[in-house]
Amino acid sequence: MRKELTRTKQVLDKQTVRRIIETSVYGVLSLNGDDGYLYSVPLSYVYSNGIVYFHGSPRGYKYDCFQRTDKTSFSIVGQSQVVPSVRANNFQSVLIWGRLQPVADTAEKLSALRALAEKYSPGIPDNEDEIQHSLNYVFMTKLVPEWITGKQAALEVRETAEKL
Fold this sequence. Notes:
Blueprint: H1 14-23, E1 26-32, E2 38-44, E3 46-48, E4 51-56, H2 61-67, E5 71-83, E6 88-102, H3 106-120, H4 127-134, E7 139-152, H5 155-163
Helix pairs in contact: 3-4
C-alpha cells in the first residue's frame, strides 16, 4: 500500500484532515465487484471514535460486494473549486485505507446509527424511533483505518482561488 504523498507541499495537516472526515457528506468506497471489476460507490457515512461507519440493506449488489471485500480505500472530497485561469482545481481531499468489518455488536451498531442520525438528521424528534425500528434489518459495516492521507491543491492554485 502506497502511503506517503509524492508532493509533500500539498499534504494537509491532521486537523484539516479530521475536519474533512467529520464534516463531509459522502465519500466513495472501493469494493471488489464482479469478474475482477472494482465497484466504487458513493456512500453516506459517519466518523465516530476513529472508525468510519456505513449502513445499508442486507441484500443487493453493494451488500454482496461488502461480503467479499476486506482491504479497501475510501475517498472524500472536502472542497472542489475550478480555477480556470490556472487550468486547475482548488481541492482538498482525504483518502483512508483500511479494513472493512461487519458490525455485529448491537451496542456498537446502535451507537453508529445514532451518530448517523445526528449527522444527517440533527434534532429530528423521531430519530430514536427510526433507529430502533431499523436496528434488526439494517446492515452496518465499519472501516477501520490503517492509513489516512490528506492532500490539497498546489500553492499557486490556492493563491489564485483566494483572489476570485
